[in-house]
Automatic annotation (TrEMBL):
Domain of life: Bacteria
Record domain ACT: where: 194-271
Keywords, comma-separated and alphabetical: Amino-acid biosynthesis, Aromatic amino acid biosynthesis, Lyase, Phenylalanine biosynthesis
SUPFAM superfamilies reported for this sequence: ACT-like, Periplasmic binding protein-like II
Organism taxonomic ancestry: Bacteria, Pseudomonadati, Pseudomonadota, Alphaproteobacteria, Rhodobacterales
GO-annotated molecular function: prephenate dehydratase activity
Protein name as it appears in the record: prephenate dehydratase
A Pfam family reported for this protein in Swiss-Prot or TrEMBL: PDT
Pathway stated in the Swiss-Prot or TrEMBL entry: Amino-acid biosynthesis; L-phenylalanine biosynthesis; phenylpyruvate from prephenate: step 1/1
Keyword NAD listed: no
Listed EC numbers: 4.2.1.51
Catalytic activity: prephenate + H(+) = 3-phenylpyruvate + CO2 + H2O
Length: 277
């Protein structure tokens, strides 16, 4: 192992799977909450954090955009992970024996077709990996879990059905974060830059601030707004753009953004995951 990477959830969670995909040589450290993940890295008990930010089916992960700017950490990489859902049960179980399946409510909603076809009743669990662990502890062949194959390996469950999700494109995007930024150019799919900003209180400020990206040919892949401190008048924007801050077109676009903004915080500069394409 070369260091430790913290994630939110139980061993076998999809965030754990993301750690395996993006940093297979590191020890994965489970944490109870996203805040705990961040604090674990800030204390030095882990070198990196693995945080989910958005899902192709369900949109952005709640609270993450509020946590990132205040985390004190820097984005150094991203990872796109296909969410493959599997039916897991205690060893020796046959599919026709299963009457109920436990998982997080989001995963249950993604497998409605399979569950209806096999007359399996959905049961809401706290999370995916925790449901797999609970099924292993119960030892009842009538109760299965919907989770990752990694969870099945960890908790000693049989794989009864693989990739049973209704939508074949379901993917979660994760950010890898560290205590120190990395501004070097790396990877083979181009660079990404993420930042948050607040526009000045003038008419059409956002429209004018965005103009620099259009005129300089900078592709903005994400722009989201959210309230700050519960105020209806204080709005912060989160943005992802293609390119490196040292690229001429990015530099010019950011200079124009700065002119129309009251604050800008760069969250990270990192290689684009090939999964973007």
């Amino acid at each position: 192992m070369t260091g430790r990477i913290a994630f939110q959830g139980e061993p076998g969670a999809y965030s754990h799977e993301a750690c395996r995909k993006a940093r297979a040589d590191m020890e994965a450290v489970p944490c109870a909450t996203f805040e705990d993940v961040i604090d674990t890295v800030k204390r030095g008990d882990a070198d990196l954090a693995m945080l989910p930010v958005e899902n192709s089916t369900y949109g952005r992960v709640a609270d993450i955009h509020h946590l990132l700017p205040e985390s004190g950490l820097h984005i150094i990489d991203e990872a796109f992970v296909r969410v493959h859902i599997n039916l897991l049960a205690v060893p020796g179980t046959k599919l026709e024996e299963v009457e109920s399946a436990m998982s997080h409510t989001v995963l249950l909603g993604q497998c409605r077709g399979f569950l209806r076809k096999h007359d399996i009743r959905p049961v809401t669990g706290a999370d995916t990996a925790g449901s797999a662990r609970a099924v292993a502890q119960m030892g009842d062949p009538k109760m299965a879990a919907l989770a990752s194959e990694l969870a099945g390996e960890i908790y000693g469950l049989d794989l009864l059905a693989r990739h049973i999700e209704d939508r074949a494109h379901n993917t979660t995007r994760f950010l890898v974060m560290s205590r120190a930024p990395d501004l070097t150019r790396r990877g083979t799919s181009g660079m990404m830059t993420s930042f948050v900003f607040r526009v000045r209180n003038i008419p059409a400020a956002l429209y004018k601030a965005m103009g620099g990206f259009a005129t300089n040919g900078v592709n903005m892949t994400k722009l989201e707004s959210y309230m700050v401190d519960g105020s209806f008048s204080a709005t912060q924007f989160y943005a992802d753009i293609e390119g490196h801050p040292d690229d001429d077109n990015v530099r010019l676009a950011m200079e124009e953004l700065e002119y129309f903004s009251s604050s800008i915080t760069v969250l990270g500069v990192y290689p684009a995951d090939p999964g973007r394409n």
